[in-house]
Amino acid sequence: MKRQIGYLPTFFLVVLLSGLTTGLVLWMHPVSTMAMIKAMLLKQPVLLLLNYLPLFLLILSFTCLLRNVFFATGLVGFVTALMSVANRVKIQIRDEPLVPRDFGLLKEAADAAGNYDLRLPWMLIGCVVVFAAIMIALGILLPTKAPDHQYLVRLAGFAASALALLLSVRFLYSSSTLYNSFSVTNPYYLTSVSNELGFPYYFCYHFSTYQVQKPEGYSKAQAAAWETDDSAGQGKDVHVIVVMNEAFSDLTNYDVFQYSGEDDPLKQFNALRKGENAVSGALVVPGYAGGTANTEFDVATGMQTNNLHTTSAFRSFNRNLDSVFRVFGADGYHTVFMHPGDAWFYNRQNVYRWLGADEILFSGDFVNSVSRGRWVTDDTVAENIILKFEEAVSGGQTLFDYAVTIQNHMSYTADKYGESGPYPAVPVDLPLSKEAQTLLSVYVEGLRDADAMLKTLTDYFSASDEPVVLAFFGDHLPYLGDDRLCYRELGLPMADDSAENFTSYETPYLIWCNDAAAVEVDLNSLSLPADGQLSACYLGAVLLELTGRGEESAWFSYLNELRRQLPVMQNGVYETMDGTVTSSPEQTELISKYLNWSYYKLKDKKVS
User: Fold this and answer.
1) Please, which residues have CB within 8 angstroms of residue 232's CB and are 6 or more apart in sequence?
2) In the chain, count of helices (H) and strands (E)?
3) Residue 1: predicted pLDDT
4) I need a labelling partner for 43 at 20 to 30 A (CA). Which of 143, 204, 255, 330 fits?
């Protein structure tokens, strides 16, 4: 007769084997397991508990169901350790941790696997299989003492354990306060965060992150019917350069500043916006003083981050999406995204591949890169835009280049640019605190460099016989002190954070074309509102229409129709073409269609 294990020893085995399984799962990380556990024990021991708890509850629940602690451990260990292996592989090929929403894309992942040089960690996979086999063998040799007829008791134990797991994920693991309380090396580099917090905890936390709210009355079939066949080849071969400049604003154009014409930090920008070959206005972006990637997303896709009810648009999808890159690419353009920052930041290395960019450049890819202080200069970005343009022209290609700068990123402290300060005091007609004066003087120094970048580009393209359209705008307003310090002291409207006040979200935009492009495109045909205000989600559609591609995509064609009635949409507040601001517009059907179509594109449409 086989020796059976009693109830109390079984529970102790659940506790012990859960710890063993936790160690196995953490061992699959692409970092030193001992170093990770040591750091947790010495600095943040609660992390060990948070990694242990879900495995304990899983093993306990399946012990109740299967009547055997070893069978339960073998099953849970096999599945969760292989998930940790999958996390390791995903990090190695895409520098991005595994999260729950990835399991909704198993088919897409299998289809894309052929595009990678997959080197599976067979030794680790073998260890997982051996672990599971040992547990099964022990389960056969040492069955748990539990009468066969106690089904209700076992089911109750399974249900209670499973419920405890679900509740812990819902209320404990979903806590952003708890998650943000842990000290990590770089909170923005999610691979590093995952390796420091542990896969089980990191995975459970992300059950509740970056969720996109489904619109009321959403119909997948109805949204799919709006997707009429797109047609390429209608546009004109005009090079399109898009520059989203970090924290670019026309702040110094307010009357409170006392700059002369020669000292104007925005001398080039202000001259161009008054010229014949340009239109300009205020771009209403998703966030105040932050959210660069959300503005990138809105411009590139035509969807609006705020209407998706997510904090990070780039973290809300992990598959191919429609974008301006794809429309220009279908017309034979060479499409480029460039940003002199880290590839992992905001997951851009994957995002722009999903958006269809042919070429993606990050800090290490820039030629003759120069930094000023911590960040790569705007001048470096301008030089590399010109290099890509010259490469395209010499290769007989038309270029679409979406460049995102970084130089004028916060913080605007006196040491931002190292030893090159102090900088000229900002001339204003009212007293400012020392902190405000420092913030403004450092910020304006970067603004001058942004304007110099614009001059470099427009001077170069003005001398070219190739037709070029340039869109230049800011991603968000600068962060100038807590509680909007500088805006308050200057008495500017950005100090008001009410929903109806768009100025907190306005950055200037300029659409300029050289003489060669002026022959090909008609800026006056865009029907922009008199005040020039435009939500960022429309900018891509505007550029497509300007270059003759307004009808190539049903989606972007609809955006151009919508912007002619509601040029601004911002957090449930709208502005009509006549400048009326309202939270109850007449165009409810158009808005509903926009929301439903956006959701379809983000969550349901398959893009090859």
Assistant:
1) 327, 330, 331, 552
2) 23, 13
3) 44
4) 204
